[in-house]
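[SOLVED] Predicted holo structure with zinc ion

Edit: marking solved, answer below. Original request kept for reference. I posted the sequence and ligand SMILES and asked for the 3D complex as structure tokens.
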Amino acid sequence: MLIDFHTHFFPERIAARTMQILRERMAEINNIENLEDRTYPICTDATLEDTKRCMKRAGVDLNVLLPIATRDGQSDNVNNYAEMVNDGKNIISFGSVFPYQKDWEYVICDLADRGFKGIKLHPEGQQFDIDGKEGLRVIKKAVELGMLVVIHAGIDPGFEGKPHSSPLKFRHLMEETDGSHIIAAHLGGLMQWDDVEKYLVGTPINMDISYVSKVMDMEQYRRIIVNHGPEKILFASDCPWQDPEETLRDLRSVNLDEESMELITYKNAKRLLKI
Ligand SMILES: [Zn+2]
């Protein structure tokens, strides 16, 4: 079995435009002329149908959709779409809340009532600090209601400035809440892995491996997985930003033992998702 814990796709009518905006912004910030540069090709057109094809090709049995509400008033649409595509078998959708929206608490309680297993937060896309007031209240409430919280971690190539979810900020967050319901994406902090080793390795927080093998030193990748503990690492691609086929090939290339591979590729996910 293979579970991809971090994927994105959008309603058909906005998928192409959304991807174009995201890719152009990344290219501009990073002075990239060619969008097919190794780090920025995409493996789907970010629609549901194409994502299904991509998952099938890679041998993924179940993928977790992580939508993000990036402004006030958007969470209803985002969560309704997430609920619609959730089939509980091949696709499990998380919900989203914009941390600054007035009715944030209602939105989270409603998501829990509707059976959502978790929420996704993006501190760059949503411009909040995970250890600040708005971040803490949302994260703590979701955890209190038994939901998982997946949080973008580290630098995001589509945004400038200091990251709002650095490994040190995750460390602060864990003084306020237990990390076992939290999943820090991108192996704890995209492009900040020395700090991940300093502040997060060995703590109770979960980490996913989405996207990182495209840009990371694979010795450090292996070291973080082994030292942090494979029971807290989740297979994840960040599709369409990385093809799960590539994620799996790269994970296999660091030669972990069989038990670790089983935990990472599906057992940890099944435990966290309670399936
Ligand atoms: Zn992502």
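OP edit: DSSP finds ten helices and nine strands in the chain. Thanks to everyone who chimed in.
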